[in-house]
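Bumping with the actual sequence this time:
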Amino acid sequence: MLKPADTPAHAASAGRSWSVALAGSGGAGVMTAGTLLLDAAARAGLYGLFVRTSGPQIRGGEAAALLRLGPAPVGTLDDRFDLLLAIDWQNLHRFADEIPLGAASLLVGDADEGEAPAALLAGGARCVALPLKRVAKASGGWVNMVALGLAGALSGVPLAAMEAALREGWKRSADALAANLAALQQGAALSSEIGVPRPEPLLPTAQGAPAARWLLSGNEAAGYGALRGGVRFVAAYPITPATELLEWMAPALARVGGTLLQAEDELASVNMIIGASYGGVPALTATAGPGLALMTEGIGLAVAAEVPIVVVDVMRGGPSTGIPAKSEQSDLSFAVDGLHGDAPRLVLAPNSIADCAHTTEWAVQLAETLQAPALVLSDQFMGQSRCVVDRPAAAATPVQRLWATAPADGTPYRRYVDTASGVSPMARPGTPGTVYTADGLEHTERGIPSSQAADHLRQLDKRQRKLLQHDYGPRWADVEGDAELAVITFGSTTGAAREALARCASAGLPLRLVALRLLAPLRSEALAEALHGVREVLVVEQNHGGQLLRYLRGRADLPGRPRGLHRPGPLPLRPGELAAAFTDWSRAVAAPAQQPAPQETTP
């Protein structure tokens, strides 16, 4: 049997955050409990991050809700969990690596479910057994509501906030609500039986969440950003972990007069959005790596025909079917170089859940302005995680394409005229005097198919020039600090890298951060300016082959001896391991030249 726990030392004492995992077998309701706990924390004035994880079945099987709460925005999971609350132990040993526990951690399980798995006890977590299911049965409620009350009380979240979150989301009978409110209250009361002090207070002095605070997932944020950018048509085929983006956009599009269509496959969906965009409607599809591979031919058509589209790729573990419900940044090489021929395109990557909204909106604006396909590289970590964020600023006016009118002098309309900017006026179908052919064949300025060398070179130069000459402003990357050692990263690894840099700085090791948002075209001159005065760079990413490092080496002059720190998913990069790696790297850089550090490392 589990033994009562002694007093744990909470992570909140160092970083003023609290990490809790709720775990159980399929149907135990841990995801519902995790969602409600995050909602309650937001109502109480806290920020938080909720990451969901499951076994290889995608649906069913074991599952865990991973949360980190704090008084400031949370961008990554912490190194260890302060609390793991298990409704049952069925296959939970599979989460031993994903839910790291230490001697200061608290492990709570049901007294009637047997022994905790040895893999969860290996870190020295202190344990306590409580009659969770018996308490739920006595109240007539659900065991996950008992778990919610207990986890919330141990996390310092007020009972009133949890009750409000449960009431607002309740869709069943009033009697069932009353029973589950009782279960919630009894779960909170159980916390007094554990005999450990609460964590350092995380709540601000003034209770109650500010009105301008939102709770959303990265997929929802991307959909919201697409709407703000002007997208009014979506066609897509469901795929993990991008499906929630489509589910969110279906009703949202209808409210603004748009349309979502579920296609028969990914190739059909990309061709549908090309057709919608050709007709004048900003259009988007969302997919994951396997679907992106199928869309290649259509994306190439959009490049050649200069039709603006947006493709959101919520990356997951690969190759092939890979690990559908786990995160990995392994589609980068395919996104920037994966089309046949010279096919310049836009590739962007949001650096946080909140940034999924801003970056997707920007991707729509860039696609419309430059008449080119834009790929947005989100990933499972951001897409399916939920976060409490400050409300985004008001949306900018959607960008309008450069629309064509019939030439006043009666000369034939040249759809692909070679302008100084590379952007040519695009005609809406049906506009008098602007008939042209849009297909994948190389063409003249009028759109007439041509195999002539001069026409091919002119159009290649034009399509490349419009992307290279555009003024992208400061949004191409987040550049922080001015130290002589710089960390370069992108996407969801930014949160862990930023926290690791903060830890290094407090330990007397300042580092510079460059978190890329616009990956293609790479702003080589802007990157060189951001790295001015830097002696060495370390490229951090979550994939097996160091794809970002290879990409940067091929397109930029990086200072010193560029090195890579990378490993694949499914485990996320954590701030502690990165801070340790950064410290080792800085020592290696300072070491004598006859003892060079390896060029690439894995944390």
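The tokens above came from a reply further down the thread. The chain is about 35% helix and 20% strand.
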